[in-house]
Automatic annotation (TrEMBL):
Quaternary structure (record): Homodimer.
Entry EC no(s): 3.5.1.116
Enzyme class: hydrolase
Listed GO MF terms: hydrolase activity, acting on carbon-nitrogen (but not peptide) bonds, in linear amidines; metal ion binding; ureidoglycolate hydrolase activity
Catalytic activity: (S)-ureidoglycolate + H2O + 2 H(+) = glyoxylate + 2 NH4(+) + CO2
Gene that produces this protein: LOC111016352
SUPFAM superfamilies in UniProt: Bacterial exopeptidase dimerisation domain, Zn-dependent exopeptidases
Cofactor(s) of this protein: Co(2+); Ni(2+); Mn(2+)
Source organism phylogeny: Eukaryota, Viridiplantae, Streptophyta, Embryophyta, Tracheophyta
Span of the signal peptide: 1-25
Protein name, per record: Ureidoglycolate hydrolase
Length: 474
């Protein structure tokens, strides 16, 4: 009896994870299977809403345990609940790392870490020499934020692997979960630090040799205190070759209200907008707010205000709703109510999924800054592009696999772009990439009210699991 059960399990594995419903339908009519059903007395197939054998509709997600793990991870925080503060290489960050590594090991994954603390949990496939399929996200958290940003993509990925293991699935390509170091820029001012390095950023590797935080602690010393780097030369050892993975997927809360407002459980990300960051400084002539008459002023503050409005104007005139711009910092010197500003400082963020269109906006902002300075008789002392990352587009084949998975799970989906940074933006430089969004309460993120329901997380895990299964068999 035992050999027969094993044979049935192998047969079910082949049937259940066929990538094409038509193939499933053909297998359903297979006379050999009918004979086996008659012999065993048990049906191999159960009817589904699609009219063919499709056991993916009953993938078993342990949502209760996932919620419990997220709650437990949130206790590793430097701020009181319900907020979460988890900063790179601090004690709470190290504890969170140990927590996740332990869960990976309990799930039977082989765990390794690189020199900056990117953590990898691997489930070997039947052909481990092939490039693996990867998934993952981050668990660091900006001060007084929420418990779901990034975390759903790490613990949810782990649950997706457990779902596949419970189903009896056997991957061909290995599956690997990546816990990225420092997606948030909180400590060293560098977003997506771990994934940037995996993508092979020589510039960043060199800069990190002399980078310090707000307490003048060097990146090298901070990493060393957490058990990682001992020598700056080790930073470049984390670089991955292009093609190291056959695909990369990231599950994430939307961080926006669209899915919740439209009642759609799954967002299929087609592109990630990348920001360009600009620093601008004007220098004018200060003076007493009452004594200097208006025609004689060289007000650096008004120059900054006018440029802020120009940013909005240029963004709106781009012709695309996907172009956005924000003046997030505007500082005046000396900052007294009765003193004309002699200096002003702006920091501008502009984003788009179209790099050329975004760069055109930057050019127009620069032209406006020059014109405003001349007209207002102030000096444009700095116009510096700090960062200008290229946007990333999801791979068509991965988009198709995600859409197919949602349909097979009888879930609706919406094609959408991500306007926020994600590690996927940089993993796209290593391998084909895709992202799955799930709804979050009122689109809240980076605040304690951030929330994703157990149902929505379970849906995301199912789509991730099925997509990973499809990609691993390619």
């Amino acid at each position: 009896m035992l050999p027969l059960l094993r044979f049935l399990a192998l047969l079910l594995h082949f049937i259940f994870f066929s990538s094409f419903p038509s193939a499933l339908a053909e297998n359903y009519e297979d006379p050999t299977i009918k004979t086996m059903e008659a012999f065993s007395g048990y049906p191999v197939h159960e009817p589904s809403s699609f009219g063919v054998s499709n056991p993916v509709t009953s993938l078993s997600v342990d949502a209760e345990n996932l919620v419990k793990q997220i709650e437990e991870l949130s206790t590793f925080s430097d701020s009181p609940a319900p907020s979460v503060t988890r900063i790179l290489y601090t004690e709470k960050d190290v504890l969170a790392r140990s927590f996740v590594k332990n869960l990976m090991e309990l799930s039977g994954l082989s765990v390794r870490e690189d020199a900056v603390g990117n953590i990898f949990g691997r489930w070997d496939g039947s052909e481990p020499e092939l490039p693996a399929v990867a998934t993952g996200s981050h668990v660091d958290a900006i001060p007084f934020s929420g418990k779901y940003d990034g975390v759903v993509g790490v613990l949810g990925a782990l649950e997706a692997v457990n779902v596949l293991k419970r189903s009896g699935f056997r991957p061909k390509r290995s599956l690997e979960i990546i816990f990225f170091t420092s997606e948030e820029p909180t400590r060293f001012g560098i977003s997506c630090l771990g994934s940037r390095l995996l993508a092979g950023s020589d510039t960043l590797a060199k800069a990190l040799e002399t980078t310090v935080d707000g307490q003048n602690i060097s990146f090298i010393d901070a990493a060393s205190s957490a058990g990682y780097l001992t020598d700056p030369a080790q930073i470049s050892t984390v670089f991955l070759k292009k093609g190291s993975y056959s695909a990369f997927l990231e599950l994430h809360i939307e961080q926006g209200p669209i899915l919740e407002e439209e009642g759609i459980p799954i967002g299929v990300v087609t592109a990630i907008a990348a920001p360009a960051s600009i620093k601008v400084e004007f220098e004018g002539t200060g003076g007493h707010a009452g004594a200097v008459l208006m025609p004689y002023r060289n007000d650096a503050g008004l120059a900054a205000a006018e440029l802020a409005l120009a940013v909005e104007r240029h963004v709106l005139s781009s012709g695309s709703i996907d172009t956005v711009g924000t003046v997030g910092i505007l500082e005046l010197h000396p900052g007294a109510i009765n003193s004309i500003p002699s200096k002003s400082h702006l920091e501008i963020d502009t984003r788009d999924i179209d790099e050329e269109r975004r760069n055109t906006v930057i050019k127009k902002i620069h032209e406006s800054a020059i014109e405003i300075a001349q007209r207002r008789r102030v000096k444009l002392s700095e116009f510096k592009i700090i960062n200008q990352d290229p946007p990333a587009h999801s791979e068509r084949a991965i988009i198709e696999a995600m859409v197919s998975a949602t349909k097979e799970l009888n879930l609706t989906n919406k094609l959408m772009i991500s306007r926020a940074y994600h590690d996927s933006l940089f993993m796209a430089r290593v391998s084909p990439m895709g992202m799955i969004f799930i709804p979050c309460y009122k689109g809240y993120s980076h605040k304690p009210e951030e929330f994703a329901s157990a149902k929505d997380m379970a849906n995301g895990v199912k789509v991730l699991a099925l997509t990973l299964a499809k990609l691993s068999l390619q």
